[in-house]
Amino acid sequence: QNTAKVDKPCGVLPLSNFAYQPPGTTQGILRASVSITGRLANYDRTVNIRVVADSTTAVAGEDYEILPTTIKAGAVKDSVRVIVKKTPGLKNQKKRLLLEIAPSADFSSNINTDAQTTLRRLMIEIADKGGKPENWDGIFAFGFFVKGIGLGEVFGPYSDVKFQLVIQVFGTPN
Asked: What pTM was computed for the model?
């Protein structure tokens, strides 16, 4: 049976904080890799993405737009693409968007693992306020926060000036 899963599950995607984007940026496209298990197909297949409403504060159309996700014929991987939008309210409060892969005509949700929910979900935070990123003190791995292996391990204690320098030198992920 064919299934689809998020390759970096339950992490918070970077680039959704407009405070660290060039001035004048009003929206951006976030991408998260999705891969399949099961047989290859000689036709395009749709991956259904649904919003987990009880864990989402972002508003469809206002804060984000989910673009269609299709695994091309013969392929095993593609990306979930979400347009995130900069709105005035993000200066005061970040928004959360929890996405989940839902069953479709092409893919079931039967992932044979104890981490079934983790492999099907992706959290996006949208903000427009500076501050220490969540991955400074650790990272999210398989739905759990692992302390001590984040950016702080490389760059030391957090400061706004230091983080701005990191962004200036290394840029932000595309």
From this structure: 0.73
